[in-house]
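Predict the 3D structure for this chain.
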Amino acid sequence: MKKQKEIKSKNVFFIKSIEILSFSINSKEKPLPEQLTFKFNVRLEFKTNDDLNYLYLITHIDIENVDLSIMVGQLSVSCIFQIENISKKIKIKDNHSIDIPTELLEELIEVSVSTTRGVMFSTFKGTFLHNAVLPIMDVKQFVPLNK
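Done. Predicted structure below.
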């Protein structure tokens, strides 16, 4: 029997909840091309609740048809994480931005974007957006350079 490699992280967090905040499918009156090419605009939003040790990582996805340059869909998903000792790991700055250690930030983004990909697939299943599968992304593109 093959041994499984155990991956350990010093960051302890759990997914407390996953919520679809909004989604839309925009179909135009004129028919869409048979083979659609999609472009995805991904934005991340962070909120915290220190009393409950929660971090809300909201992933917003805008789906554009490249050929027609029109927005064909949108999805916003909130992954709610419970993070042990959140106030020791995550700091709120004076300008209301959140300072998160890079390793923890990358792990949270990876889980949130992957979860949103699955939610997106199940939400758009059976529609013309069924094949609009969010590609695998390097989460480092979402981490600020000055970290």
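The chain has two helices and six strands.
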